[in-house]
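Render this sequence as a predicted structure.
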Amino acid sequence: MTTVKPVLALAAGLSILLPAVRAETAARDNPRSMAGALIDDLDDGPHVYWRTPTSAVVFHLCDRLLHEMWYDATDTLRFNGLCADSAQEYVIPVQPPDIEPHLYDGVTKMFAVSDIHGEFEPFVDLLQAAGIIDEDLHWSWGDGHFVLNGDIFDRGAYVTECLWLLYRLEQEARQAGGRVHVLLGNHETMVLLQRDLRYVNEKYTNGIVVAARVNYTDLFGPDMELGRWLRTKHTAIRLNDVLFIHGGMPPRLAARGVSLDTINQLTRQTLDHRSYQIAFDEDLRSFYGESDEGPFWYRGYHVAREGRYPHATVEDIDAILETYGSRAIVVGHTGVPQVMSLYDGKVFGIDMPLETLGSFQGLLWQNGRFYRVNGDGSRDRL
């Protein structure tokens, strides 16, 4: 049940303060929202701030006005968006989200995409072409498991829309017997932990940040709904015998026998650390940096990094697979010409260039086989 308090529309001067953000800084010109309407240059939201365990402030930037709505909710918070999302109902449990398992067996089919970086429209196009969602952007893949292998944040202008779509699909997939797994990548840790905003699209820094007077990182703080949701996410998961991790599992980390559960717990326990807690802790510096023990930035399956780590050998890969009971590793982070297999099908790279190909691609596993799924839905066996 939800009780609504008065709406506050903060209009004075904002149309002057908020500059237009044109196509060259946006991911795509005015894509359609989850409700099917065109998204304006600066529109953003909703953002949900939990003032208490049962009261929330929901705020949007809509038509260059900041709109606030105050709610009291006993079990479920329900509200409609504004502007392009005015026909979209958001359903948010008052109870904080649970941490889902990181190990699953008996998965009948899985589909993975990585490094979408706020590119909402091409992301939606691929999910529809692959049959993951229907024309209204609702889950249509039954008991399948979908993995977003990190890096939703930065660069593109529709990060918020991507996050809320994944949030809703997670609810719908669970009801259908499937799952959506959102993994944390290096750009998530840059925003949430390191406060490194170099790659944040200026739509946000010139728009919602100015209008709401809330730092960009704090839009995803622990008292924000998207923030508390992201803090339940894993760094690494295993579906059947396939390991998913954003940058890659470094051989040295695997050689130490560090479990997936330990890696996931360490991320959650330190995601709200201050910079000095990372700077003066050698283990955490390595874990969150581009090192031979950093799962977020590691690129050793693709290249060597002088003074940091060598190019991984076949023996390294075999040892990693044995340690984690896997037959293959799926990674994003490091660009490949297209979704492809490496190390004779033991590693799959799925961070492909949208700019070059004109569409995203995904990795499908079904009936024991891997396929590249192209932007038009066609498949190539790998």
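Summary. Residues 11-16, 21-27 have pLDDT under 50 and may be disordered. The first strand starts at residue 2 and ends at 4.
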